[in-house]
Amino acid sequence: MALSTAEYRALDSAHFLHPFTDHKELHQKGSRIIERADGVYLFDSEGNRLLDAMAGLWCVNVGYGRKDLAAVAQKQMEQLPYYNSFFQTAHPPVIELSKLLSEVTPDHLNYVFLTNSGSESNDTVVRMVRHYWKSLGHPEKQTIISRKNAYHGSTMAGASLGGMSAMHAQGGLIPGVEHINQPYWYREGGDLSPEAFGKNIALELEHKIESLGEHKVAAFIAEPIQGAGGVIVPPETYWPTIKEICDRHQILLVADEVICGFGRTGQWFGSDYYDLKPDLMPIAKGLSSGYLPIGGVMVADHVSRVVIEEGGEFFHGMTYAGHPAACAVASANIRILRDEGIIENVREHTAPYLQKRWKELAEHPLVGEVRGLGFLGAMELVADKASGKQFDPGAGVGGICRDLSAQAGLVMRAVGDTMIISPPLIMTHEQIDELVTLAHQALDQTLTAIKKSH
Ligand code: PXG
Question: Which CATH architecture has domain 32-65+341-453?
Fold first, then answer.
Protein backbone atom coordinates (compact mmCIF):
# COMPACT_ATOMS: atom_id res chain seq x y z
CA MET A 1 0.00 0.00 0.00
CA ALA A 2 1.75 3.18 -1.13
CA LEU A 3 -0.48 6.15 -0.41
CA SER A 4 0.07 9.87 -0.10
CA THR A 5 0.73 11.33 3.35
CA ALA A 6 -2.76 12.87 3.37
CA GLU A 7 -4.34 9.51 2.58
CA TYR A 8 -2.35 7.73 5.28
CA ARG A 9 -3.33 10.42 7.78
CA ALA A 10 -7.00 10.18 6.90
CA LEU A 11 -7.03 6.40 7.29
CA ASP A 12 -4.98 6.58 10.48
CA SER A 13 -7.47 9.04 11.99
CA ALA A 14 -10.41 6.93 10.80
CA HIS A 15 -9.30 3.54 12.08
CA PHE A 16 -6.34 3.49 14.44
CA LEU A 17 -6.44 4.17 18.17
CA HIS A 18 -2.92 5.08 19.28
CA PRO A 19 -1.35 4.29 22.66
CA PHE A 20 -0.92 7.15 25.16
CA THR A 21 -2.50 9.67 22.78
CA ASP A 22 -5.04 12.48 22.95
CA HIS A 23 -6.84 11.56 19.74
CA LYS A 24 -8.72 14.79 19.32
CA GLU A 25 -5.46 16.69 19.24
CA LEU A 26 -3.80 14.11 16.98
CA HIS A 27 -6.63 14.18 14.45
CA GLN A 28 -6.25 17.93 14.09
CA LYS A 29 -2.53 17.62 13.41
CA GLY A 30 -2.28 14.24 11.67
CA SER A 31 0.32 11.59 12.43
CA ARG A 32 3.86 11.67 11.16
CA ILE A 33 4.12 8.59 8.96
CA ILE A 34 7.48 6.84 9.31
CA GLU A 35 8.19 4.72 6.25
CA ARG A 36 11.69 3.40 6.71
CA ALA A 37 14.84 3.71 8.78
CA ASP A 38 18.54 3.11 8.52
CA GLY A 39 21.27 3.34 11.16
CA VAL A 40 20.25 6.24 13.41
CA TYR A 41 17.94 7.89 10.88
CA LEU A 42 14.20 7.69 10.25
CA PHE A 43 12.58 8.70 6.95
CA ASP A 44 8.99 9.94 6.85
CA SER A 45 6.42 9.84 4.08
CA GLU A 46 7.19 13.43 3.13
CA GLY A 47 10.83 12.64 2.47
CA ASN A 48 12.20 14.15 5.69
CA ARG A 49 15.17 12.57 7.41
CA LEU A 50 15.15 12.57 11.21
CA LEU A 51 17.97 11.76 13.58
CA ASP A 52 16.33 9.37 16.04
CA ALA A 53 17.73 10.35 19.42
CA MET A 54 15.16 8.08 21.14
CA ALA A 55 16.13 4.78 19.47
CA GLY A 56 12.45 4.26 18.66
CA LEU A 57 11.07 4.02 22.18
CA TRP A 58 14.36 3.49 24.04
CA CYS A 59 14.86 0.19 22.27
CA VAL A 60 16.67 0.14 18.91
CA ASN A 61 20.07 -0.32 20.55
CA VAL A 62 21.91 -1.74 17.50
CA GLY A 63 20.30 0.82 15.17
CA TYR A 64 17.97 0.34 12.24
CA GLY A 65 18.51 -1.54 9.02
CA ARG A 66 20.38 -4.64 10.23
CA LYS A 67 19.69 -7.01 7.35
CA ASP A 68 21.32 -9.84 9.27
CA LEU A 69 18.57 -9.62 11.91
CA ALA A 70 15.89 -9.65 9.21
CA ALA A 71 17.56 -12.69 7.62
CA VAL A 72 17.60 -14.54 10.97
CA ALA A 73 13.86 -13.88 11.38
CA GLN A 74 13.11 -15.09 7.86
CA LYS A 75 15.16 -18.26 8.23
CA GLN A 76 13.57 -19.10 11.58
CA MET A 77 10.05 -18.44 10.28
CA GLU A 78 10.66 -20.79 7.40
CA GLN A 79 11.98 -23.51 9.68
CA LEU A 80 9.62 -23.22 12.67
CA PRO A 81 7.42 -20.10 12.74
CA TYR A 82 5.76 -21.00 16.01
CA TYR A 83 5.75 -23.49 18.75
CA ASN A 84 5.01 -23.13 22.44
CA SER A 85 6.96 -24.23 25.47
CA PHE A 86 4.00 -24.85 27.76
CA PHE A 87 3.62 -28.60 27.73
CA GLN A 88 7.10 -29.98 28.22
CA THR A 89 8.44 -28.89 24.86
CA ALA A 90 11.12 -26.42 23.84
CA HIS A 91 12.88 -25.48 20.60
CA PRO A 92 16.45 -24.58 19.69
CA PRO A 93 16.03 -20.76 19.54
CA VAL A 94 14.47 -20.53 23.03
CA ILE A 95 17.19 -22.73 24.51
CA GLU A 96 19.97 -20.82 22.79
CA LEU A 97 18.60 -17.46 23.95
CA SER A 98 18.21 -18.67 27.55
CA LYS A 99 21.84 -19.79 27.59
CA LEU A 100 23.10 -16.55 26.02
CA LEU A 101 21.15 -14.49 28.53
CA SER A 102 22.67 -16.39 31.42
CA GLU A 103 26.10 -15.49 29.99
CA VAL A 104 25.62 -11.73 29.48
CA THR A 105 23.58 -11.00 32.62
CA PRO A 106 25.18 -10.85 36.12
CA ASP A 107 26.64 -14.21 37.22
CA HIS A 108 23.96 -15.18 39.71
CA LEU A 109 21.13 -14.85 37.15
CA ASN A 110 21.01 -18.09 35.21
CA TYR A 111 17.35 -18.65 34.39
CA VAL A 112 14.94 -16.61 32.29
CA PHE A 113 11.13 -16.60 32.14
CA LEU A 114 10.22 -15.25 28.71
CA THR A 115 7.40 -12.86 27.81
CA ASN A 116 6.48 -10.56 24.91
CA SER A 117 6.99 -7.16 26.52
CA GLY A 118 8.26 -5.25 29.51
CA SER A 119 4.74 -4.98 30.90
CA GLU A 120 4.24 -8.74 30.81
CA SER A 121 7.65 -9.12 32.42
CA ASN A 122 6.51 -7.02 35.34
CA ASP A 123 3.25 -8.95 35.60
CA THR A 124 5.49 -12.00 35.83
CA VAL A 125 7.50 -10.32 38.59
CA VAL A 126 4.35 -9.83 40.68
CA ARG A 127 3.28 -13.44 40.19
CA MET A 128 6.74 -14.83 40.79
CA VAL A 129 7.68 -12.93 43.94
CA ARG A 130 4.36 -13.81 45.56
CA HIS A 131 4.70 -17.44 44.43
CA TYR A 132 8.25 -17.50 45.81
CA TRP A 133 7.29 -16.35 49.28
CA LYS A 134 4.23 -18.59 49.36
CA SER A 135 6.37 -21.55 48.38
CA LEU A 136 8.69 -20.75 51.28
CA GLY A 137 5.75 -20.71 53.71
CA HIS A 138 5.17 -16.94 53.82
CA PRO A 139 1.88 -16.37 52.00
CA GLU A 140 1.43 -13.05 53.80
CA LYS A 141 4.53 -11.57 52.12
CA GLN A 142 2.59 -9.97 49.25
CA THR A 143 3.23 -6.24 49.17
CA ILE A 144 5.58 -4.79 46.60
CA ILE A 145 7.19 -1.43 47.27
CA SER A 146 7.76 0.76 44.24
CA ARG A 147 8.38 4.46 43.60
CA LYS A 148 6.35 7.48 42.60
CA ASN A 149 6.84 8.44 38.95
CA ALA A 150 8.27 5.01 38.11
CA TYR A 151 7.28 3.34 34.85
CA HIS A 152 6.85 -0.42 34.83
CA GLY A 153 4.40 -0.89 31.96
CA SER A 154 0.80 -0.52 30.99
CA THR A 155 -0.86 -3.80 31.95
CA MET A 156 -2.84 -3.68 35.20
CA ALA A 157 0.08 -4.96 37.25
CA GLY A 158 2.60 -2.85 35.31
CA ALA A 159 0.59 0.34 35.81
CA SER A 160 0.02 -0.51 39.49
CA LEU A 161 3.72 -1.04 40.10
CA GLY A 162 4.41 2.14 38.18
CA GLY A 163 3.98 5.44 39.94
CA MET A 164 2.39 7.46 37.13
CA SER A 165 -0.41 9.46 38.74
CA ALA A 166 -2.33 9.96 35.47
CA MET A 167 -2.40 6.20 34.88
CA HIS A 168 -3.48 5.56 38.46
CA ALA A 169 -6.29 8.09 38.06
CA GLN A 170 -7.77 5.92 35.29
CA GLY A 171 -8.41 3.30 37.95
CA GLY A 172 -8.30 -0.48 38.05
CA LEU A 173 -5.15 -0.88 40.11
CA ILE A 174 -4.17 -4.17 41.69
CA PRO A 175 -3.89 -4.23 45.48
CA GLY A 176 -0.67 -4.71 47.42
CA VAL A 177 1.57 -2.04 45.90
CA GLU A 178 3.01 0.86 47.93
CA HIS A 179 5.01 3.80 46.60
CA ILE A 180 7.87 5.75 48.13
CA ASN A 181 9.51 8.92 46.78
CA GLN A 182 11.90 8.97 43.82
CA PRO A 183 15.52 10.18 44.01
CA TYR A 184 14.79 13.29 41.92
CA TRP A 185 17.24 15.76 43.38
CA TYR A 186 16.81 18.65 40.90
CA ARG A 187 13.10 19.12 41.63
CA GLU A 188 12.63 17.51 45.01
CA GLY A 189 16.01 17.83 46.74
CA GLY A 190 15.28 21.18 48.43
CA ASP A 191 18.37 22.53 50.19
CA LEU A 192 20.04 19.16 50.61
CA SER A 193 23.18 18.11 48.77
CA PRO A 194 22.54 15.36 46.21
CA GLU A 195 24.35 12.89 48.51
CA ALA A 196 22.31 13.73 51.61
CA PHE A 197 19.08 13.72 49.60
CA GLY A 198 19.87 10.38 47.93
CA LYS A 199 20.46 8.77 51.29
CA ASN A 200 17.29 10.24 52.84
CA ILE A 201 15.14 9.09 49.96
CA ALA A 202 16.63 5.60 50.09
CA LEU A 203 15.90 5.45 53.83
CA GLU A 204 12.20 5.84 52.95
CA LEU A 205 12.39 2.19 51.90
CA GLU A 206 13.42 1.21 55.39
CA HIS A 207 10.64 3.29 56.95
CA LYS A 208 8.09 1.79 54.57
CA ILE A 209 9.21 -1.75 55.38
CA GLU A 210 8.96 -0.97 59.08
CA SER A 211 5.52 0.63 58.82
CA LEU A 212 4.09 -2.21 56.70
CA GLY A 213 5.86 -4.93 58.68
CA GLU A 214 8.68 -6.87 57.05
CA HIS A 215 6.60 -10.06 57.21
CA LYS A 216 4.21 -8.45 54.68
CA VAL A 217 6.72 -7.10 52.17
CA ALA A 218 7.68 -9.29 49.22
CA ALA A 219 9.92 -7.02 47.13
CA PHE A 220 11.17 -3.60 46.15
CA ILE A 221 11.12 -2.76 42.44
CA ALA A 222 12.95 0.10 40.72
CA GLU A 223 14.56 1.09 37.46
CA PRO A 224 18.33 1.61 37.99
CA ILE A 225 17.77 4.99 36.28
CA GLN A 226 14.15 6.07 35.85
CA GLY A 227 13.51 6.38 32.12
CA ALA A 228 9.97 7.44 31.21
CA GLY A 229 9.77 9.42 34.46
CA GLY A 230 12.38 11.82 33.02
CA VAL A 231 15.81 10.11 33.03
CA ILE A 232 16.26 10.51 36.75
CA VAL A 233 19.84 9.60 37.57
CA PRO A 234 19.99 8.88 41.30
CA PRO A 235 22.59 10.56 43.54
CA GLU A 236 25.60 8.32 44.25
CA THR A 237 24.43 7.52 47.77
CA TYR A 238 21.06 6.17 46.65
CA TRP A 239 21.72 2.66 45.38
CA PRO A 240 24.30 1.65 48.01
CA THR A 241 21.80 2.61 50.73
CA ILE A 242 18.93 0.77 49.03
CA LYS A 243 21.08 -2.32 48.60
CA GLU A 244 22.15 -2.29 52.19
CA ILE A 245 18.49 -2.04 53.30
CA CYS A 246 17.46 -4.91 51.01
CA ASP A 247 20.35 -7.05 52.32
CA ARG A 248 19.34 -6.41 55.90
CA HIS A 249 15.69 -7.27 55.32
CA GLN A 250 14.08 -10.38 53.92
CA ILE A 251 12.76 -8.80 50.75
CA LEU A 252 13.60 -9.31 47.10
CA LEU A 253 15.21 -6.60 44.97
CA VAL A 254 13.79 -6.27 41.46
CA ALA A 255 15.82 -4.15 39.02
CA ASP A 256 13.63 -3.21 36.06
CA GLU A 257 16.18 -3.19 33.24
CA VAL A 258 13.71 -2.68 30.39
CA ILE A 259 15.42 0.62 29.51
CA CYS A 260 18.80 0.36 31.26
CA GLY A 261 19.57 -3.12 29.92
CA PHE A 262 21.64 -4.19 26.93
CA GLY A 263 24.21 -1.45 27.00
CA ARG A 264 22.36 1.77 27.66
CA THR A 265 24.55 2.74 30.63
CA GLY A 266 27.76 1.63 28.91
CA GLN A 267 27.62 -1.64 30.86
CA TRP A 268 25.48 -4.61 29.88
CA PHE A 269 22.96 -3.75 32.59
CA GLY A 270 22.23 -0.89 34.96
CA SER A 271 22.67 -3.58 37.63
CA ASP A 272 26.30 -3.96 36.51
CA TYR A 273 26.78 -0.20 36.58
CA TYR A 274 25.42 0.12 40.13
CA ASP A 275 26.44 -3.38 41.29
CA LEU A 276 22.87 -4.16 42.35
CA LYS A 277 22.84 -7.98 42.36
CA PRO A 278 19.05 -8.07 41.91
CA ASP A 279 16.95 -11.13 42.70
CA LEU A 280 14.77 -10.57 39.63
CA MET A 281 15.55 -8.52 36.55
CA PRO A 282 12.80 -7.74 34.01
CA ILE A 283 14.13 -7.12 30.49
CA ALA A 284 12.65 -6.20 27.06
CA LYS A 285 13.33 -3.42 24.49
CA GLY A 286 17.12 -3.72 23.85
CA LEU A 287 16.84 -7.51 24.20
CA SER A 288 15.87 -7.63 20.51
CA SER A 289 16.68 -3.96 19.76
CA GLY A 290 12.94 -3.77 19.07
CA TYR A 291 13.21 -5.83 15.87
CA LEU A 292 10.61 -8.27 17.24
CA PRO A 293 8.58 -8.08 20.45
CA ILE A 294 10.14 -10.02 23.29
CA GLY A 295 10.71 -9.59 27.01
CA GLY A 296 11.61 -11.69 30.00
CA VAL A 297 12.54 -11.86 33.64
CA MET A 298 16.02 -12.97 34.67
CA VAL A 299 15.80 -14.97 37.89
CA ALA A 300 18.52 -15.32 40.54
CA ASP A 301 19.69 -18.81 41.45
CA HIS A 302 18.17 -18.83 44.92
CA VAL A 303 14.78 -17.79 43.51
CA SER A 304 14.84 -20.21 40.57
CA ARG A 305 15.73 -23.02 42.99
CA VAL A 306 12.53 -22.35 44.92
CA VAL A 307 10.44 -22.05 41.74
CA ILE A 308 11.91 -25.30 40.41
CA GLU A 309 12.14 -27.41 43.53
CA GLU A 310 9.53 -26.17 45.96
CA GLY A 311 6.87 -24.23 44.12
CA GLY A 312 5.06 -26.98 42.22
CA GLU A 313 3.42 -25.70 39.05
CA PHE A 314 3.83 -21.98 38.31
CA PHE A 315 0.45 -21.10 36.80
CA HIS A 316 1.55 -18.37 34.43
CA GLY A 317 2.53 -17.97 30.77
CA MET A 318 1.67 -16.35 27.43
CA THR A 319 1.02 -18.05 24.05
CA TYR A 320 3.80 -16.21 22.25
CA ALA A 321 6.35 -16.20 25.06
CA GLY A 322 9.59 -17.67 23.77
CA HIS A 323 8.44 -17.20 20.17
CA PRO A 324 11.02 -18.90 17.93
CA ALA A 325 11.56 -15.96 15.58
CA ALA A 326 11.74 -13.43 18.43
CA CYS A 327 14.20 -15.65 20.31
CA ALA A 328 16.39 -16.15 17.24
CA VAL A 329 16.46 -12.40 16.58
CA ALA A 330 17.17 -11.62 20.25
CA SER A 331 20.11 -14.05 20.26
CA ALA A 332 21.50 -12.54 17.06
CA ASN A 333 21.05 -9.05 18.54
CA ILE A 334 22.92 -10.02 21.71
CA ARG A 335 25.75 -11.47 19.61
CA ILE A 336 25.92 -8.20 17.64
CA LEU A 337 26.16 -6.20 20.89
CA ARG A 338 28.83 -8.58 22.19
CA ASP A 339 30.91 -9.41 19.12
CA GLU A 340 30.95 -5.93 17.59
CA GLY A 341 32.06 -4.38 20.87
CA ILE A 342 29.14 -1.92 20.79
CA ILE A 343 28.80 -1.64 24.55
CA GLU A 344 32.56 -1.16 25.12
CA ASN A 345 32.55 1.53 22.45
CA VAL A 346 29.71 3.33 24.23
CA ARG A 347 31.48 3.03 27.58
CA GLU A 348 34.95 4.03 26.41
CA HIS A 349 34.26 6.48 23.59
CA THR A 350 30.82 7.65 22.56
CA ALA A 351 29.03 7.97 25.93
CA PRO A 352 31.71 10.23 27.44
CA TYR A 353 31.55 12.34 24.27
CA LEU A 354 27.74 12.42 24.25
CA GLN A 355 27.65 13.44 27.92
CA LYS A 356 30.23 16.16 27.37
CA ARG A 357 28.44 17.63 24.35
CA TRP A 358 24.93 17.19 25.81
CA LYS A 359 25.97 19.01 28.98
CA GLU A 360 27.06 22.01 26.90
CA LEU A 361 23.37 22.68 26.38
CA ALA A 362 23.20 23.74 30.04
CA GLU A 363 24.43 27.16 28.86
CA HIS A 364 21.19 27.81 27.00
CA PRO A 365 18.85 30.37 28.67
CA LEU A 366 15.94 27.90 28.54
CA VAL A 367 17.77 25.12 30.32
CA GLY A 368 17.68 24.68 34.11
CA GLU A 369 19.51 21.38 34.39
CA VAL A 370 21.17 18.90 32.07
CA ARG A 371 21.90 15.40 33.29
CA GLY A 372 22.63 11.99 31.89
CA LEU A 373 24.60 8.80 32.08
CA GLY A 374 25.77 6.46 29.34
CA PHE A 375 23.46 6.89 26.37
CA LEU A 376 20.67 8.50 28.39
CA GLY A 377 20.15 12.25 28.72
CA ALA A 378 17.66 14.77 30.08
CA MET A 379 17.41 18.52 29.92
CA GLU A 380 14.91 20.52 32.00
CA LEU A 381 13.36 23.57 30.34
CA VAL A 382 12.62 26.34 32.82
CA ALA A 383 10.95 29.73 32.86
CA ASP A 384 13.74 31.21 35.00
CA LYS A 385 17.23 29.84 34.72
CA ALA A 386 18.54 31.16 38.03
CA SER A 387 15.72 29.94 40.26
CA GLY A 388 14.72 26.90 38.15
CA LYS A 389 11.12 28.18 38.15
CA GLN A 390 8.96 25.98 35.96
CA PHE A 391 6.70 27.02 33.11
CA ASP A 392 2.97 26.81 33.58
CA PRO A 393 2.27 23.15 32.66
CA GLY A 394 -0.62 24.37 30.48
CA ALA A 395 1.85 26.20 28.23
CA GLY A 396 3.13 22.88 26.91
CA VAL A 397 6.69 24.13 26.42
CA GLY A 398 8.14 20.60 26.27
CA GLY A 399 5.68 19.71 23.51
CA ILE A 400 6.58 22.86 21.58
CA CYS A 401 10.28 22.01 21.82
CA ARG A 402 9.64 18.39 20.76
CA ASP A 403 7.67 19.52 17.68
CA LEU A 404 10.22 22.16 16.69
CA SER A 405 12.97 19.62 17.19
CA ALA A 406 11.22 17.15 14.86
CA GLN A 407 10.77 19.92 12.31
CA ALA A 408 14.50 20.58 12.51
CA GLY A 409 15.17 16.86 11.94
CA LEU A 410 15.70 15.48 15.45
CA VAL A 411 13.50 13.15 17.50
CA MET A 412 13.62 13.96 21.21
CA ARG A 413 10.98 12.93 23.73
CA ALA A 414 9.26 15.42 26.03
CA VAL A 415 8.35 14.31 29.56
CA GLY A 416 6.45 17.40 30.63
CA ASP A 417 9.05 20.13 30.09
CA THR A 418 11.99 17.75 30.32
CA MET A 419 13.58 16.85 26.99
CA ILE A 420 14.89 13.30 26.83
CA ILE A 421 17.33 11.40 24.66
CA SER A 422 18.19 7.69 24.51
CA PRO A 423 19.99 7.26 21.19
CA PRO A 424 20.87 4.06 19.34
CA LEU A 425 24.13 2.74 20.77
CA ILE A 426 25.81 2.86 17.36
CA MET A 427 25.65 6.65 17.17
CA THR A 428 29.00 8.11 16.05
CA HIS A 429 30.84 11.23 17.21
CA GLU A 430 29.71 13.11 14.10
CA GLN A 431 26.09 12.10 14.68
CA ILE A 432 26.39 13.21 18.32
CA ASP A 433 27.57 16.60 17.03
CA GLU A 434 24.55 16.69 14.71
CA LEU A 435 22.25 15.79 17.63
CA VAL A 436 23.60 18.61 19.81
CA THR A 437 23.47 21.16 16.97
CA LEU A 438 19.85 20.27 16.19
CA ALA A 439 18.89 20.26 19.88
CA HIS A 440 20.44 23.71 20.26
CA GLN A 441 18.52 24.91 17.24
CA ALA A 442 15.28 23.51 18.70
CA LEU A 443 15.98 25.32 21.99
CA ASP A 444 16.53 28.63 20.17
CA GLN A 445 13.33 28.21 18.20
CA THR A 446 11.41 27.26 21.34
CA LEU A 447 12.64 30.41 23.05
CA THR A 448 11.52 32.50 20.07
CA ALA A 449 8.12 30.79 20.02
CA ILE A 450 7.61 31.41 23.76
CA LYS A 451 8.59 35.08 23.42
CA LYS A 452 6.17 35.50 20.53
CA SER A 453 3.27 34.03 22.49
CA HIS A 454 3.78 36.56 25.34
N1 PXG B 1 9.60 -1.12 32.43
C2 PXG B 1 10.24 -0.01 32.04
C3 PXG B 1 11.35 0.53 32.86
C4 PXG B 1 9.85 0.62 30.84
O5 PXG B 1 10.48 1.73 30.46
C6 PXG B 1 8.17 -1.08 30.56
C7 PXG B 1 8.60 -1.65 31.72
C8 PXG B 1 7.05 -1.72 29.79
O9 PXG B 1 7.51 -2.29 28.63
P10 PXG B 1 6.51 -2.55 27.40
O11 PXG B 1 7.35 -3.38 26.48
O12 PXG B 1 5.35 -3.30 27.92
O13 PXG B 1 6.12 -1.20 26.85
C14 PXG B 1 8.81 0.07 30.08
C15 PXG B 1 8.34 0.70 28.81
C16 PXG B 1 7.74 6.57 27.12
C17 PXG B 1 7.48 5.12 27.10
O18 PXG B 1 6.83 7.31 26.77
C19 PXG B 1 8.27 4.25 27.82
C20 PXG B 1 7.98 2.88 27.80
C21 PXG B 1 6.93 2.41 27.05
C22 PXG B 1 6.14 3.28 26.33
C23 PXG B 1 6.40 4.66 26.35
O24 PXG B 1 8.83 7.00 27.50
N25 PXG B 1 8.73 2.03 28.58
Answer: Alpha-Beta Complex (3.90)
